[in-house]
Each structure stands twice: as structure tokens, then as C-alpha cells.
Amino acid sequence: MYPYNRNTQLYHSRAKETQAEKSSLLAQDKRLEELLSLARAEAKETARKFETLLDRAELSEAGQILRTMYLDGKKHLRLLQEVGFLIFGTTPQENEACETEEAAEAPDTCTLLEELLLAEMDDISFYRTLLFAMTEADLRNTFFEILTDKQNHAVALSHLYAKYFG
């Protein structure tokens, strides 16, 4: 039986206070800010590599798979920017200069697929660690979404690597 005569407002106000304290603790964590900055840079680089793979003629049959992964990379970048805003209250300013420097070198398709596969596998453990570090459900849900996308990318890249270069 539910105790209808109790004042439940007291419990709700305490829950809101503890959640606000957790948010302020995350905002004070400089290491978390650096990790999110690193994650944004990695998401940007991964999206650029997927875009490079989309232009490769030998992977034309896998265009839809690569396009989905490219769009996921763009989505991850947007989600990471939103997480940064939710935690720190500021929108990060990205540096565009590093993007033009790395665009000059283009490794062969096999090497690029291998690099992406290894990067996605590293990202899986990175995002799993970030997922467990989050105290709020909204933030955990965001990192869980990114984590599952990364797992799907690792499987798809493994398939493409085995199909074209195995």
C-alpha cells in the first residue's frame, strides 16, 4: 500500500539538490573537459577518414555502409558538443587549421580501413569509460548511443576489411 498521507515534495526537492551537486562536480573536472575535447577531435578526424573512404572506387559497393558511418561520425561530433554544453555551459571552439594539414596525405584504402577499425576499437573502450563516469541519465544515454554506434562500426569495418582485403 502506498502511504498517501506523506509529503513527497520533500523527497523530490532533495533529489534535485543532489543532482545539481553532481552536475557542478562534473563542471569542475578539468580532466573531463580535456577528455571531451579529445573525443571531439577524434570524432572529427574519424568523420574525415570516412569521407575519404567514400571517395574510393574500390569500395563503391559499400558506399551505403560507409555513408552511414560518416553520418554517425557527424552525429557523434554534435552529441559531444551538446554534452560539453550541458556540463560546462559553453560551446567549444574547434580549430580548423589542423584539418587542412592532414588532408594532403592519403594512405591506401587497406591502410585506411585498418586504421579506422583499430581507432573504432580504441574508441569503444574510451566511451565505455566515459559512460561509467557519468552521473546523470541524459549523459549516460548519449554516451551509450555513441558506444553502440562505435561497436556497430567496428563490426562493419571488420566485414569490409575481410571482404576486400582478406
Task: Provide structural commentary.
The protein has 6 helices and no strands. By secondary structure, it is mainly α. The chain is elongated and about 50 Å long.
Q: Secondary-structure blueprint of this entry?
A:
Layout: H1 9-28, H2 30-54, H3 63-88, H4 97-102, H5 109-133, H6 137-165
Helix pairs in contact: 2-3, 2-5, 3-6, 5-6
Brief summary of the model shown:
This protein has helices spanning 9-28, 30-54, 63-88, 97-102, 109-133, 137-165.
Please give a handful of descriptors for the protein shown.
single chain; elongated; 166 residues; mainly alpha
Using only C-alpha atoms, the radius of gyration works out to 20 Å
- Main β-sheet: number of strands, strand sense, barrel status? none
Structure annotation, total helices: 6
Sequence of secondary-structure elements: HHHHHH
| Overall form | elongated
Poorly predicted residue ranges: 15-19, 96-101
Number of strands: 0
